[in-house]
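We read letters as residues; the fold follows as tokens. A sample entry reads:
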Amino acid sequence: VTCTEVVLAFITRMQTVNPIINGIVQDRFEDALNQAKLVDEMIQANPDPNYWETTKPLLGVPLTVKECIAVSGMSHNVGRTIPEQRIAKKDAEAVANFRSAGAIPIAVTNTPELCCFWESYNRRTGLTKNPYDTRRVAGGSSGGEVDFSKLKVYYYIDDRHHFPNLLHPDIRKAVRKSASHFEKFGVEPKKVYIRHFQSTLMTLISIMLRMGASHNIFQRSDDAEDFSKWDVLREMLLNIFGLGKYHIYSVMYGTGKIINDLLPQSYEDHMRKVKQEIANCLE
């Protein structure tokens, strides 16, 4: 089987299924086929499999990439309607590594707007449906295999706060039952007492909001400081009345990022210290 045949098989299947699933934002089928032909020529010139396994272990493997990860020359808008178009100027490091290993990107795929939702829906590409049941949505953005012998599972019973009391007893029972189920696969649940548990959510949010690579809907350009606070207020009001251009979660993210950036550096330093303490507990 040639690389061209493999890539063509993937393309044919995607062209058949995508009108039903709506998972592709932009394809590069023609370029992918040209790359596949070059791979076939390379293998024909040097048919030694050991050489290619060592130098390019993913040679000729078709690859799709989420729109939130830059693929040179492809859409990198992450589900936004504004700006109308944002094209990646270069590959993200992960994509560059895949290409270096011989993989062939064939399309970029749908995500929630700025990845700020639990289903792949945005107002630009629309809703991506579940391939197993099109009445449902594609709830997860990624999946894969895992070595159960190295798996760590964390759950909490009580943080001496009011939140656990809001959980239905059946849910708490199901969590404990799930944890004990892992023992069948050699994974022993452990109790961990986290001193700053109440701060974990705020710690996570604070650090994520300060990530320089994260864009928000109020940016006019790639410059994170290029936005107007009036844009923030206007979009919040529009969303309250159902007239907004963006998903409410993207508005919340953008608003939170702006507020978080106003906090002093000492606040971030404290949150990173809390993060490290929590990480030490979970080692």
In short: Confidence is low (pLDDT under 50) at residues 142-148.
